[in-house]
Design a protein that fits this description.
alpha+beta, five-stranded antiparallel β-sheet
Length: 178
C-alpha cells in the first residue's frame, strides 16, 4: 500500500497556516520526505474594497482543515497526528483505524479551484448549447455557449441580463448542459 493519496487533517480553526509550517518542519527534521509530499491550506483570493482601495486577501475555503498528500505509513500517520495544532484526521473511526483518503474527483475539484491543477476537464457541452451557471454571481442563470477556451478551461456564455444579451466568461467547472 505505497500509494500517494490525499487526506484531510483537522486543525484548530484559524491555525491552518501555522500547522502547515509545523508539519513542513517536522517532515524535514524527521526525514519523512518520501512519505509526506504536499500540504495545502485550501485558499482562494478574495477582493475587498477598503477606503476606496482594492485589497486582495486570501479566504480559507475549509476553515479548520488541511489537505495532506502522503503515503499512509505508520510513521507518517503518527507524525501528522502528533503535530502541534492537529486534532486528527477526517475519515478515521478512531481506535487506531487509519483514515480514508479523499476521492480523486474531490481533490481535483479543490486543486482546480485553487489554480493548482493541470488536468483538463472533459465537458459535455459545446458552442451553441444551452447551459446553466452553477456558481458565482450568476448562479442559476441560463445562457448559450458562444465560445470555448480549452486552454483556460472557460466558456463565453451569453446570458440575458436587464433585457440585453451579455457575454460572461465562466469556468467549465461552473457550467452544466441543460
Amino acid at each position: 500500500m505505497d500509494t500517494k493519496e490525499w487526506y484531510v487533517v483537522n486543525t484548530y480553526s484559524g491555525h491552518e497556516n501555522r500547522v502547515k509550517e509545523n508539519l513542513e518542519r517536522r517532515v524535514e527534521s524527521m526525514g519523512i520526505e518520501d512519505a509526506l509530499f504536499r500540504i495545502l491550506v485550501a485558499e482562494e483570493a478574495e477582493i475587498e474594497y477598503k477606503n476606496g482601495k482594492k485589497v486582495e486577501k486570501m479566504r480559507n475555503l475549509f476553515p479548520g482543515y488541511l489537505f495532506v498528500e502522503m503515503i499512509m505509513t505508520d510513521e507518517a500517520w503518527y507524525i501528522v497526528r502528533n503535530t502541534p495544532g492537529v486534532t486528527g484526521f477526517i475519515g478515521s473511526s478512531g481506535g487506531g483505524a487509519k483514515p480514508f483518503p479523499v476521492s480523486p474527483e474531490e481533490i481535483e475539484s479543490i486543486l482546480r479551484r485553487m489554480g493548482l491543477s493541470d488536468k483538463k476537464l472533459i465537458v459535455d457541452f459545446e458552442v451553441g448549447d444551452t447551459v446553466r451557471i452553477l456558481a458565482g454571481p450568476f448562479t442559476g442563470i441560463e445562457g448559450t455557449v458562444d465560445s470555448m477556451n480549452n486552454d483556460a478551461q472557460t466558456a463565453m456564455v451569453l446570458t440575458i441580463l436587464f433585457g440585453r444579451e451579455t457575454p460572461t466568461e465562466i469556468s467549465y467547472t461552473d457550467i452544466e448542459r441543460i
